[in-house]
């Protein structure tokens, strides 16, 4: 079975991102390039990391009117990312149009409720109810819109997996027991997320900010 870990390359310097990616590439399954990376390095940066030979997860979290999101999807088409994110809160039509504009080889997945948010944060956005219910509702909407899957925390992935058997489920907010949690609020271990049905495990700082990133990538791999 291939390694489900995608390393989040949330680094401002392209050279540093490339060096880190090259160092750990034997112990991860792919690289996730997010807003920090894409805003700084654009298509050129994606090509540079893709040259290492592992699949690219382009985490742009698109959230706008359907026409604008479809246009953005077309603009990244030639990068042939394995995975792209949109926000489920953008609604059904936006997700449908995003999927229609994506290349055949690209999985489009919808972010449900960010792992940095908890129930109190959710209420402050005007949404009553539990984080769990919000994730389940948006997962159902994403499935109805024809997306390939969703992004959720490890606290909900088992329930989503039961509801959406062949959904492609991406789980960030992962920490080995002894790691500092930083800004993440809904956190589990990589092993638990994997056992509960995650297809992809997103790991960033526990590897990228480790004193020895290669040892940290190996340590994550060893738990799976
Ligand atoms: O879409 C994502 O990847 C994502 C969704 C989410 O709800 N939470 C979340 O942390 N992420 C991303 O996953 C990565 C987590 O990084 P670390 O907390 O450093 O492991 C970051 O690149 C986030 O942008």
Automatic annotation (TrEMBL):
UniProt-annotated binding residues for substrate: 10, 32, 59-68, 115, 175, 184, 204-205
Protein name listed in UniProt: Orotidine 5'-phosphate decarboxylase
Family: Belongs to the OMP decarboxylase family. Type 1 subfamily.
Gene Ontology molecular function: orotidine-5'-phosphate decarboxylase activity
EC number(s) per entry: 4.1.1.23
Residue intervals of the Orotidine 5'-phosphate decarboxylase domain: 4-220
A Pfam family that the UniProt record links to this protein: OMPdecase
Gene name of the encoded protein: pyrF
Active site (record annotation): 59, 61, 64
Catalyzed reactions per annotation: orotidine 5'-phosphate + H(+) = UMP + CO2
CDD domains linked: OMP_decarboxylase_like (cd04725)
Organism: Tsuneonella aeria
Highest taxon of source: Bacteria
Keyword Lyase: yes
Function of the protein: Catalyzes the decarboxylation of orotidine 5'-monophosphate (OMP) to uridine 5'-monophosphate (UMP).
GO terms under biological process: 'de novo' pyrimidine nucleobase biosynthetic process; 'de novo' UMP biosynthetic process
PANTHER family: OROTIDINE 5'-PHOSPHATE DECARBOXYLASE
GO CC annotation terms, alphabetical: cytosol
Subunit record text: Homodimer.
Keywords annotated in UniProt: Decarboxylase, Lyase, Pyrimidine biosynthesis
Biochemical pathway: Pyrimidine metabolism; UMP biosynthesis via de novo pathway; UMP from orotate: step 2/2
Gene3D superfamilies (alphabetical): Aldolase class I
């Amino acid at each position: 079975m291939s390694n489900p870990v995608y390393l989040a390359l949330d680094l401002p310097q392209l050279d540093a991102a490339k060096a880190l990616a090259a160092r750990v590439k034997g112990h991860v399954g792919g690289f996730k390039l997010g807003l920090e990376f894409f805003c700084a390095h654009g298509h050129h940066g994606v090509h540079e990391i893709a040259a290492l030979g592992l699949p690219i997860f382009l985490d742009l979290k698109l959230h706008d009117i359907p026409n604008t999101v479809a246009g953005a999807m077309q603009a990244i088409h030639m990068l042939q990312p394995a995975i792209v994110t949109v926000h489920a809160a953008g609604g059904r039509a936006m997700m449908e149009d995003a999927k229609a504009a994506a290349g055949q080889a690209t999985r489009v997945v919808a972010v449900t409720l960010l792992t940095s948010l908890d129930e109190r944060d959710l209420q402050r956005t005007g949404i009553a109810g539990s984080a769990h219910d919000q994730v389940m509702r948006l997962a159902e909407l994403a499935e109805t819109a024809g997306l390939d899957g969703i992004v959720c925390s490890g606290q909900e992935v088992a329930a989503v997996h039961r509801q959406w058997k062949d959904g492609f489920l991406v789980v960030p907010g992962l920490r080995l027991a002894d790691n500092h949690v930083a800004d993440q609020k809904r956190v589990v271990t990589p092993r638990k997320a994997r056992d509960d049905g995650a297809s992809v495990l997103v790991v960033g700082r526990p590897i990228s900010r480790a004193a020895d990133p290669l040892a940290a990538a190996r340590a994550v791999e060893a738990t799976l």
